[in-house]
Backbone:
């Protein structure tokens, strides 16, 4: 599962998390892959109602309890966290303009011009790099234009859908 963390200035970091089988203990294993650090393994276990995390299953640190799954508060800024998707347009302009980040093929269009949409609604499915990606609304609003059709091949930066807030 891909996670995106975006600060208030639009700077983003993303990482992929996948589970691994951990036969050493009751800990749950995860692989985290980032562009800068490569792939690392982490293990999480619960003990006495608290969660602990380790990279080597020898030394364990208490993991902070997170009550808000949509954001993280850092020392001096608030960060938005998106699990599985990043509303298109956040790094490129308004959240109501959905642009392709990479070349791909439109598999399915799930909305039409004039449709009311809510933030997080899936608007179309785009196949890129042999994976189907759900393109979701970044804002609540009305679909102003749909600039794609099913089966259409798109280049990076193509405006797929515009949403009017």
Residues:
């Amino acid at each position: 599962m891909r996670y995106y963390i975006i600060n208030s200035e639009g700077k983003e970091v993303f990482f992929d998390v996948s589970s691994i089988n951990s036969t050493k203990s009751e800990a749950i294993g995860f692989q985290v892959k980032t562009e800068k650090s490569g792939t690392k393994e982490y293990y999480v276990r619960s003990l006495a109602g608290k969660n602990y995390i380790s990279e080597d299953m020898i030394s364990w640190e208490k993991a902070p309890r997170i009550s808000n799954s949509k954001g993280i508060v850092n020392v001096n800024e608030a960060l938005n966290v998106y699990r599985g998707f990043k509303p298109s347009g956040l790094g490129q302009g308004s959240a109501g303009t959905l642009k392709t980040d990479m070349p791909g093929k439109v598999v399915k269009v799930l909305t039409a011009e004039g449709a009311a949409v809510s933030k997080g609604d899936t608007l179309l499915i785009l196949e890129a790099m042999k994976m189907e990606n759900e393109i979701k609304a970044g804002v609540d609003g009305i679909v102003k234009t749909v600039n794609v059709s099913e089966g259409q091949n798109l280049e990076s930066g193509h405006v797929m859908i515009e949403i009017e807030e």
